[in-house]
Every structure is written in structure tokens, then in C-alpha cells.
Amino acid sequence: MATLSEKKTCSERMENFRRFVWNPETKQFMGRTLINWVWISLYYLAFYVVMTGLFSLALYSLMRTLNPYEPDYQDQLKSPGVTLRPDVYGERGLEIYYNISDNKTWDGFVTTLQTFLTAYTPAAQHLNINCTSDTYFIQDTFDGPNKTKLSCKFTSDMLQNCSGLTDPTFGFPEGKPCLIIKMNRIIKFYPGNGTAPRVDCTYVVSICSNYGDDSRPLEVDYYPVNGTFNLHYFPYYGKKAQPTYTNPLVAVKLLNITRNEELKIVCRVVGTGIISDNVHDPYEGKVEFRLKIED
Amino acid sequence: IQDDHKLSTEELEEKYGTSTSKGLSSARAAEILARDGPNSLTPPKATPEIVKFLKQMVGGFSILLWIGAAFSWISFGIQFAQGAESAFDNLYLGVVLALVVILTGIFAYYQEAKSTNIMASFSKMIPQQALVIRDAEKKELSADQLVVGDIVEIKGGDRIPADIRLIFTQGCKVDNSSLTGESEPQSRSCDFTHENPLETRNIAFYSTTCVEGTATGIVINTGDRTIIGRIASLASGVGNEKTPIAIEIEHFVFLVAGVAISIGVLFFVISVSMRYKFLDSIIFLIGIIVANVPEGLLATVTVSLSLTAKRMAKKNCLVKNLEAVETLGSTSIICSDKTGTLTQNRMTVAHLWFDDQIYSADTSEDQTTQPFDQSSQTWIALSKIVTLCNRAEFRPGQENLPIMKRVVVGDASETALLKFAEVVLGDVMDIRARNKKVAEIPFNSTNKFQLSIHETDDPNDKRFLLVMKGAPERILERCSTIMINGKEEPLDSEKAEAFQTAYMELGGLGERVLGFCHLYLPENEFPDTYPFDTDSMNFPTSNLCFVGLLSMIDPPRSTVPDAVSKCRSAGIKVIMVTGDHPITAKAIAKSVGIVSATSETVEDIAKRLNVPVEQVDRRQATAAVVNGMELKDMSLQQLDEILCNHSEIVFARTSPQQKLIIVEGCQRQGAVVAVTGDGVNDSPALKKADIGIAMGIAGSDAAKNAADMVLLDDNFASIVTGVEEGRLIFDNLKKTIAYTLTKNIAELCPFLIYIIASIPMPIGTITILFIDLGTDIIPSVALAYEKAESDIMNRRPRNKRKDRLVNEQLAVYSYLHIGIMQSVGAFVTYFTVYAEQGFLPSTLLGARVYWESNTINDFEDSYGQEWTKYQRMYLQWTGYTAFFVSITIQQVADLIIRKTRRNSIFQQGLFRNKVIWVGIFSQIGIALILTYGLGHVTALNFTPLRFQYWFVAVPFAILIWVYDEVRKLFIRRYPGSWWDKNMYY
């Protein structure tokens, strides 16, 4: 082993490395002659071209098998998620903290809501039809233009006091803020089994927290009335079938919020087939948020 | 150097303050014992267990994984301080990485400890007793209590308890073979016969055995100061060399770690410059390291080696150091001891000369008859002398044992003659009883003959028969007639010439020759009642009738010539290194094929051409016999020249230091040297060798301690088996490593694509660990059971500088060919799973930031559906599982193609190695359990996968197999071509 472990001097190492990079005797560059390098490069070029070809072929045939209107499986989408606007996340989730007297603290919330509702102006909704039936809007054929299906109109004025039309500040300065609840779209999902699902907001009752000791029930105004998602917005047929579809919304106006106290509130969507007790997923069928209004 | 052998008894008594009659006083002995320490050899310093254990914890890839764990904990600390929810994932990852290192470390330590324990049982020695005179009384003492100045008594069969200057002897002979390698017992006396204490007759050495006679002596050296002790400390001074396989593994670890670190750092820089958060970049770095490091591989290598070690143990090769398993395979020179390894270590009658003709006797280990012509009357006379003129006897109670295995009381030559006679004639004891002995003169060095007078068993013949044996020339001097075909004829000069020729010829074979003669005493001169007196010798001892010669040798083991020729065809040079005489050494070397029949030494050529030795062209001589005395005066260059120029070399009369020099010389040639030996004198060379092989039966403890391997049956042929196993395991380790490295690319690509294309993470770090330490372990061990592809004993030993375990071709083929195919297959599965759940590849590209954001719970897929964070995470885990399953499925194909490197799988047989199938089923079984059994345990990131996703990668698995078959086909079809050079690993 003595021969292998012989310590080489630095110059010897450099010399060895130089010979590796270019060996004038064998005309080898990095251990290969030029022609050898050409061959090996050509081989790898061909190999990787073929591999890329195979990969593209595999993906192409995959795409061919897919239905353009709906996915093959909805294994994870058994029940819709629920989100809140304004969506301001702090360290512990959604946090809506502001000071009534300082309009800088709530301007952001108002802007978010206004921006969010621009998709619900009559102009934005002009391609959608007015629906009046309170049952599922089932379409087996493509009745819309360009092989699409029709979508029902949802305009912001349906949110009445929380539409931002009558009160552009959404009640924030009064300490009675409007929040908007949205349910996630799932293709061919029929919520509520014939009964319109509705939003229900309560304080979170927790053993080791001070949020729930407020014995007063949470007073909420729901818009539209009763906080329901009308059934004619369901089912959803997918982006390709309903390109102009917009989610129905429910606005909640919190009326009796204790000032200067952090409150934890949960808004559930109540209806058959909507699960809101998944321990792993805090946003499935419900949305929780903390609220603190200072003055 | 001591001069105790030159001193007289009185001077010695004075020097050591002792008395030959009374010995030391107990008090004085205790004092000296306190000063010198006990009379035992200091065992070699063992590495403390804790150091061995810690070495396992930081060796190999462990450092990289520790770094990974440290990074995990650092990022946990930072994230925890920031209050992020996902912080604990990093804590767990760090813990898992640390656990992986600790568990594999414990495993490796356990494996090593297990193989060391086998050896520990060897060194257990029965405490030796010594008979000492102390306080004017004879006492039995434990030998380690002996001190300088003690008077000890020794009798036949005892082991010499210390270095002893003899002051009284009676027919004492010692067996110095463990010290010098001489197989003949040496006689001891009180006389100072040689300047060199090693050669003089009046010193007996520690650990040698007293074969016969009795002696009394003064202890002059104890413990480590004895000659043996000094040799043993010479051995411990020789450092342990790294084994070739350790160097290969180091090279491999270096290579893989180099790849891991450079890719890791490269992508760390890329991700930082792509404005990923610093913390994220560190987490990517950990992922890249984990993906690149084959965590289970070193454990697999250990298991493979210990499996081979077990297989070798069954074939009587006990491996002390696991890595030595492979060393034997890469051996290019074997320096073999003669006595006991190549030979049977027992004198046996090899030739007979009578009726002016040489007969050969059977010298094999289990002879039952002798085939030579026994019809001559001369043979009957000769056999009578052999039987009667012999003091050796079988120990009683061994009638059922084969003759060759029976224990005999008597010296080596007499034993040989006794056994020879027993085989040819049958019950020797009965013949002796029928021919009653009336007088006897035992052998002594002045007479050089042995004589006895017997009654005959023929009741009609009242004559006495005088029989004599001894040194042939002395016996011939006493003869006036010679028996030819049963008739006495006068011994004329022509017959004497024939005797000389035969004597020279047998002597030239390295054999010890004895002459035999007899005389029937005339009845009238020596009646029944004649009082024979051996002191006055009142009977004739000249004008006898010469009958014949017998020659004896320590014959080679019958399996050795075949083993030597196998070594030859395997490209291994066998060199004999012995302490024995050159003539004997050369004769044995010739008979076992170490020196082939046609080759000549320089001296032979000189003799044939009748020119002085100096004029012979040294290059013409293929063989060389080098004497220790010549070696002493040689420069290193001259030694190198001999080792280079001669293919067949015998070193005779070598000392322990010279053995060391020879081994070093061979290593200077770049050879991997195996040394076999049994004596203490061999232990330094055993230690110095790349692999030391000690004899299990004849070997001394010092030799076994210094060796890496022990031959339980002392049989040189077992080495050949070992070489074969060693070569096989090297080939199979190549396969194992190629198999294991391949999937590293499939584990690494996800991270690279993730960073560059910002797709959701295709595979998790924990999932990777489940492949490396779960599904892949049993299959990679299974490759150790693969049979050889061709006759591995017909190729040259590997060149340790060129034939690396992991060469460029292996790495490139695994990484850039098969690894890429696996990655493509796994990515197709990944995209299929996402697409069928709603995320088309186009949506995934660049989606990473939003995908991973905790604040987006309505992430839109390609169909317009909206996903919460958890729903996306669950899909991501399904992706992990799918990626994992694809890699597993393709690793099945990888396992099958790795069965061979050159031959087609169909030549090798798909079902010959059953363990491979165990591997495949375990692989799939573990994957099934992980996906469906543990699919609901969130922390493991597995989900119950839809069944059809198991088959997405199958076409790619088939592609891998086909591609590799094509590769092998071209390699076989066009050997030496560009393809062969680039594709054969």
C-alpha cells in the first residue's frame, strides 16, 4: 500500500492535473482524445434526444387520455374548502386586527374587499344569466356559446349592506365589519343534498382560552338572507364548460364585537356533504379567524 | 545481545544470585517478579471499544449526514424562533438523519464485533505450569510467575516456559519449528557450541517444545524480553495497512460525497440566486445530500462481506477482519511458508534403495498400502531391520485409528519408519515381540548409528540377528558385503559407486537418508546364553552386510500441487519462504509446482553448461533459490531484481526480519501480498502482509493474532477457495454499488427540477430514506449471492491502481444512463398522478410558491377547481408515493440487469439465484406495506395510492432491461471496441 499512499508534492499534483487536462503524448484532453470526445458527445446527444422524445411521447399520450372538461379523479376534493376575504394572514392564521380611529389600519381590508368584488360588478357578470330557480342548475348539454355551459349571475349588490355600494367602507369604521365567505369550486359537487348550504359564524369555544367566555352570542347579519349559497350556482362544470362562472358569496356583518379584545371566530358552511371537522385541514368546510377591534 | 550461553554454571549462579541446587528464595523471587513483571507476552494493544464505536459514527457518509442533520436543526431553530408551523418537520428530519447514522453505525460495529469475537476464543490459553526449584524445594508454579534466576526442570512434551540456559541435559531435544521453521527436532546440551545465542545448543527458547529427554536450566529471560517476545513486539511495531477494499470504499465514498457536495453547493448557489429564501435553500441542500448519499450501502457492503466470510468459514477459512475477504481475491503474490502449510509437517518415508534400484513410496496423508515391489528377499531383510532397529512405539489404545493418525512416542525419523513398517507389514509390535531384543545401543551423535541384537522368530534358527541403521556413509564403512536379490555379494568398488549415486540422488531430493545393514551372528560363537555387553561391544560391528537405504522427507500435502497450479492460472505468483535448508526447500518447491519441472535456476544452468555461475545470463533462469545468507548481503535493488526477473522463487534459511524484507519487496512491486505462516517467526511478516494467513492447527497464538485469516485445516488449498470467494465478492460488490447508485439520480432529479422548474416537490426526504434503507436493502444484499459470470480463476488478479471498485464507467452508466431512465419513468408517473387529479403539467410549472403558500386556500387547478393547502399537501404526498412506487418498480428491473455485467441475463439464468427473488418480493412487499398499511400515518407522507399508478413506470422498467441487454450484447460482440471501453464497468 506504500505506493498508493505516497504523499505527492503540490507541484506533482499540479503536473498530474495538467497532464489530465492535456496529455501531449496521447493527445488526450481530459482523458479522451478529441475524436473520442466527439463520439461520446454524439452518443449522449442521441441518448438524451431519445429520452426526451420518450418523455414527450409519454406525456402526449397522457394528455390524450385526459377529459378536457373534468379530471379523472377528485380523491382529495370530497368536500370544499372555505376562504375569507379580506385574507390577511399573520403568524397564527387569518388575523383581522385594526384600530377604528386609525384608518390606515383598515384601509387595506377595504381595498382588498373592493378589489375582490370587481369580479362581481354587473359589467364583469354580463355574460352570465339570471337564475331564479332554487334548485340545482343541471345542464347535460352545452347550451352556451362555443360549446360551453351557462353560468348564473352573482353580482355584488346581492350582498346588500356589505356590497360596498351603499357603504364603501364595509362597516369597518363603525366596528361592524363586513367579511366575505367564499366556498371553493369543485366540479360536479352537489352541496346540501337539495337544501341550500348556509354560513354559520360563532365564537370558537375552547377550554383553555379566553375567547369563549364571552357569554353573549355572536350577532351576525348574513347577506344574502340567511347566508345561503343558492343551489342554482351548483353544480360547477369546470373552467372549459363554464369559463365565466363565479363563486357565489356570503357576506357576514359582525354586529356586537367587544372592543380591544382578541376574539376567535369560526364560520362554517352548513349543509349535507360538507365536512367541517377534518382535524388535518383547518379550511375544509369552515374558516377560522381572529378579530381584534381597538378604539 | 546476551552472552549467558558463554558463561559457566558458577558464573551464572553469581550473575543471577541463585543456586542450581536450592534455587531462588521465595522472597527474592517475589522481588524480581515485582521488578520484571509476570512472565507472559504483553498482548497487542487493542483499540478501546468506544473508539471503535465512534469511528463507525463518523466514517464514510456519516459526516455528510451529520451535516444534513445539523442543517435541519439549525433551520428548525430559525423557523421555530420565527414561529412558523412547519418548523417541526425539520426537527424530525434532523432526528431521522441522526438516527440513520447512529443505527447504521451500531450495525457496522456489531458486525465487526461479531467477527472479532470468533477470534477472541482462539487466544484463550490454558494456564501453563512449570516445575521450579525454590527454597530448595521442587514446586509446581504457574509459568507466568517465573522470574530470572529460577531453576526449572523440563521433560519431554513440556513447553519451554521461558528462555533457559541449560545446565543439565539428558537426551534433550527441542522442536524449534515455531521459532526457526526447521521441522526437525534439535538436540540440546550444556555445551556452548556457537557464538550466536540463537544457534548455540545450551539455550532453550520460550514457547518451543521439548520433544524428548529431560533438562534443567536457569531462566535468563522472561516475558517480552525473551527471543519470542522480541519477535512478537517486532510484529506489533508493524503498522496495520489499509486493505484494498477499504481503499476502494474510501475512493467510492470520496467520489459520491464529491458529487453530493458539488451538486449540493451548485444548487444552493442557484437557488439563492433564483431568490429562494436562504432557509429554503438550506433545506434543498439537505435534500440533495440525502438523495445523493446511499445511506444503506455501507451496511450492505458489510453484510455482503460477512456473508462471504461465513461461506469461507464453512470452507475452513476463518476471516478475522471482514475486509480481508476481498483482499485475498486481489492477491497477486502468495508468500507461503513451507512446513505445515505446503507440507504435512511429519517425516514420511519417501524412497527406498535396495537391489541397486530406487523405489518410491506413497507419501500421501492417508496411505494404507505401499505399491512398490515387495517380492525381493532383500526387502524382507530390510523390512526386518526397519522394524527391529527402532525404539519408537505407538501409544496404546489407538488400534481403531488409521495408522497415519496414531500418536507415536519417539523422534520424527523413527516415527516415520515405524508407521511405514506398520503400513507395509502389519502389526509391528507383534513382530518385535517375536524377535526378542537382547541388546541395544541407542543412536548418539558420535557413533551416528543405532544397533540392536535380536533372537529370530524362526525356532529352527538359533542364531542372533544384529541389525544396525545410521548415517549411510558410516554404515557402509562397517560393511563388507551387500545384499542383492537376497544374496550376499562382496561389496566391490562398482557396488560402492552405485551406492554413492543413489545416496547423492536421494540427498539431492532434499531427503534425509538412512542406511541399513545386518549380520546373523554365528551360532557357535554366540550361543543362547552369550552375555552381550553394549559397553565393551563384545560382538562384531564391522564386516556387516549392507541391505539398503531409506530416505525420508516431510512430504507435500496431496492437495497442494493442484492448488498451486490453480494459483498459477489465476495469475498469482507463489513464493516459498522458509527457514529450512535450500535443498529441502527446492525439492518440496519442485514437487508442489512452485518451481516447475522444466525451469532452472542460475546454478542449474551453470552446472548444465559447465560454466561459472557469474557467466550465466540471469534472465534465462526462471527459477531462483535464494539463501538467507545471500539475502543478508543484498541491496534492496538486487532483491527487487530477483522478485522481478524470476517467476519462481524459493527463499530458504530466512530469518523473521528477512521475511519482512521479502514481503516489503513484493509490496514495492505494487503487488497485493498474502503471507501464510504458523510460527511466531512468521508473525511480523503476517502483520506486514496485505493479508496474513495463519494456520489454525499448527499455528502459534502469535501468528493467529497477527493474521487476518486463519486456515482451520492448515491446508494451502483452502487459500484457493478464499481467492475465488474474494474475487467473486469484488465483482458482486460492483453490482451492488451499481444497483444502489442508480436510483440516487431518480432521487436527486426531483430536487433539481423542483428548484429550476418550481413544480410541487415530487419526492420527500423521508421517502428517499425509505427507499435507501427500506426497499433497496435486501435486493442489494441479494446480489452478493450472485454466481460468477465466467471462470474468475482464469483471469489475472485485479490491478489495484487500475481496476477500481467504482470506476468511471460504473458511475457514468448508473448515473447518466439507467438513472436518467428511472427519473424519466418516475416523472411520468408523477405527472400522471397530478394530471388525473386535476393539475396538468402546464399548471404545475412555476406553481411552487403559490402551491406551498399557507395563505392560499383556494388554489385553482387546470379545471378551475379550488384546493385548500391541506388538500394540495395530500396530493403532494400522493405524488411522493407514486414517485416512490415508480422507483421501486424500476429498481426491480435494475436489480435484474445488475445480475450480470457482460453476459445476458438469459445466459446467467433468471432463477439460479433464488435470493434475488426474495429481494424482489421483499422490495414490492415493503412498498405495499408502506403505501397501503402505513398510508394513513400522516408523518410518513405515504398515501394509499390508486392501484393503476403502480404500472405507469413498467414500460420504463422494460426499457431499462432491453437497453442493458443491448449494451451487454455489443460488449460481447465487439470486445475492445469503443462501446466495450465506455460501457463495461
From TrEMBL, chain A:
Keyword flag Ion transport: yes
Write out the GO cellular component annotations. apical plasma membrane; sodium:potassium-exchanging ATPase complex
Its main subcellular localisation, reduced to a broad class, is membrane
As for membrane topology, the entry says:
Single-pass type II membrane protein
Q: Which GO terms describe its molecular function?
A: ATPase activator activity
In the record, biological process GO terms are: cell adhesion; intracellular potassium ion homeostasis; intracellular sodium ion homeostasis; potassium ion import across plasma membrane; proton transmembrane transport; sodium ion export across plasma membrane
InterPro entries to which the protein is assigned, alphabetical: Na/K_ATPase_sub_beta, Na/K_ATPase_sub_beta_sf
Keyword annotations from UniProtKB, A to Z: Cell adhesion, Cell membrane, Disulfide bond, Glycoprotein, Hydrogen ion transport, Ion transport, Membrane, Potassium, Potassium transport, Signal-anchor, Transmembrane, Transmembrane helix, Transport
- State the superkingdom: Eukaryota
Checking PROSITE patterns in the record gives: ATPASE_NA_K_BETA_1, ATPASE_NA_K_BETA_2
TM segment ranges: 37-60
Could you say which protein family the record assigns here?
Answer: Belongs to the X(+)/potassium ATPases subunit beta family.
User: Assembly and interactions?
Assistant: The ATPase pump is composed of two subunits: alpha (catalytic) and beta (regulatory). Interacts with alpha subunit ATP12A; this interaction is required for the formation of a functionally active pump and targeting at the plasma membrane. Interacts (via N-terminus) with alpha subunit ATP4A (via the P-domain).
- What function does this protein fulfil? The beta subunit of the gastric H(+)/K(+) ATPase pump which transports H(+) ions in exchange for K(+) ions across the apical membrane of parietal cells. Plays a structural and regulatory role in the assembly and membrane targeting of a functionally active pump. Within a transport cycle, the transfer of a H(+) ion across the membrane is coupled to ATP hydrolysis and is associated with a transient phosphorylation of the alpha subunit that shifts the pump conformation from inward-facing (E1) to outward-facing state (E2).
**Under what name is this protein listed?**
Sodium/potassium-transporting ATPase subunit beta
What is the species of this protein?
Answer: Struthio camelus australis
From TrEMBL, chain B:
Q: Which UniProt keywords apply?
A: ATP-binding, Hydrogen ion transport, Ion transport, Magnesium, Membrane, Metal-binding, Nucleotide-binding, Phosphoprotein, Potassium, Potassium transport, Translocase, Transmembrane, Transmembrane helix, Transport
Q: What sections of the protein cross the membrane?
A: 58-79, 91-110, 252-276, 282-305, 737-757, 763-785, 810-833, 877-896, 916-935, 947-963
Region (Disordered) residue spans:
1-23
What's a Pfam family this protein contains? Hydrolase_3
Extract the GO molecular function terms from the UniProt entry: ATP binding; ATP hydrolysis activity; metal ion binding; P-type sodium:potassium-exchanging transporter activity
Q: What is its main location?
A: membrane
Report the locations given in the UniProt record.
Cell membrane; Membrane
SMART domains named in the record: Cation_ATPase_N
Q: Does the keyword Metal-binding apply?
A: yes
GO CC aspect terms: plasma membrane
Per the database record, which ranges form the Cation-transporting P-type ATPase N-terminal domain? 3-77
Tell me the GO BP annotations in alphabetical order: intracellular potassium ion homeostasis; intracellular sodium ion homeostasis; potassium ion import across plasma membrane; proton transmembrane transport; sodium ion export across plasma membrane
Q: What is the membrane topology listed in the Swiss-Prot or TrEMBL record?
A: Multi-pass membrane protein
Transport: is it a keyword of this entry? yes
Q: Member of which family?
A: Belongs to the cation transport ATPase (P-type) (TC 3.A.3) family. Type IIC subfamily.
Question: In its UniProt entry, what is this protein called?
Answer: Sodium/potassium-transporting ATPase subunit alpha
